[in-house]
Amino acid sequence: MDNEFKNIVDSLKATKSITRDQFAYLLEKDGEDNREYLFEAAREVAEQVFHKEVYLRGLIEFTNYCRNNCYYCGIRCGNANADRYRLTEVEILSCCDRGEKLGFKTFVLQGGEDPFYTDEKICSLVRKIKAAHPSCAVTLSIGEKSYDSYRKYFEAGADRYLLRHETANEEHYSKLHPESMSGALRKQCLRNLKEIGFQVGCGIMVGTPFQTTDNIYEDILFMQELQPHMIGIGPFIPHKDTPFRDEPEGSVEITLRLLSILRLLFPKVLLPATTALGTADAIGREKGILAGANVMMPNLSPVKVRDKYLLYDGKICTGEEAAECNQCMRRRVEHIGFHVADTRGDHPDFVN
């Protein structure tokens, strides 16, 4: 065990703060004893707050149309090979009906920035889901919208909103997105969502092209300013139909260490062990839970569209029925000594 590594972890756990140099040391210092000490510290903090509970979110990927052309994303508007689809309102509501029967208490409506789904359509959908499933939470993940649009979604009954900021560094942001997109706007969207009253989630991919350790530290500083309720991170995985097709995957090891650091910095945050982590490593989601994560997101989308919503190549669980996916996830959680909580899984500050 490296004493400096141990001292940094202990300090981080006690103070919930970390310097740039300390952060780099925790990410980069080798040694099995070191990494396990970090993971154990994060697990202890997660267990103090969440008591070995893991929350499941039912993911409904309802459209893979997108107006944006982000360089890393398989559903970018410039990808002529994408097999586009939109779920109907009936199909989406059916996913929710099936999901609640399987024990899900949160539905995540995720899609590209699709102009077909107007504010009126989104609000109508949210109202119908909440009317049919009043004890369940609705999370939206549909990109950058105006303050007024976000307010309408909230007033319709949406509880949470996920919007990965991708990178807090403007120069890095410009290397991942076309000129028409702005990192400053994306960060302002997150501030707007929080002001309106949503439980708000931000996040990054680990190992995107041109990303540095300093970039990730800037992300932490932004998160400390924002104080999000959820943070979604996973390793970058390239897609064959994007400009980054030949770039290397992000590191699972760095992703796991970052999960632990985030847990120590934000003890009450909802922290997913993502599908991307499970795609990059066969037991990546279990490793994520053991590194401090406490959320998993099984897919409730109809099987017929799952292999069309490909943000990256090799995505897992595209052929499983919702029930299969659900049972598999529960077994995986129990196998590592945790249990699935049959609750909405709100951030502790939002629990009545």
What report would you give on this structure?
This protein has 352 residues and is of the alpha/beta class. 45% of the residues lie in helices and 12% in strands. It has 14 helices and nine strands. It has helices spanning 3-15, 20-28, 32-50, 89-101, 119-132, 147-156, 170-176, 183-196, 213-226, 252-265, 275-280, 284-290, 303-306, 322-335, and strands at residues 53-56, 58-63, 106-111, 137-141, 160-162, 199-206, 230-235, 295-296, 339-341. 48% of the residues are buried.
Shape summary: globular
Overall structural domain count: 1
Order of helices and strands: HHHEEHEHEHEHHEHEHHHEHHE
Q: Largest sheet, described in full?
A: 6 strands, parallel
CATH level-four homologous superfamily name: Aldolase class I
Quick rundown:
The protein is α/β, with parallel strands linked by helices and 352 residues long. Helices cover 45% and strands 12% of the residues. The chain has a single domain (35-341), classed as Alpha-Beta Barrel (TIM Barrel).
SSE topology:
Elements: H1 3-15, H2 20-28, H3 32-50, E1 53-56, E2 58-63, H4 89-101, E3 106-111, H5 119-132, E4 137-141, H6 147-156, E5 160-162, H7 170-176, H8 183-196, E6 199-206, H9 213-226, E7 230-235, H10 252-265, H11 275-280, H12 284-290, E8 295-296, H13 303-306, H14 322-335, E9 339-341
Parallel strand pairs: 1-8, 1-9, 2-3, 3-4, 4-5, 5-6, 6-7
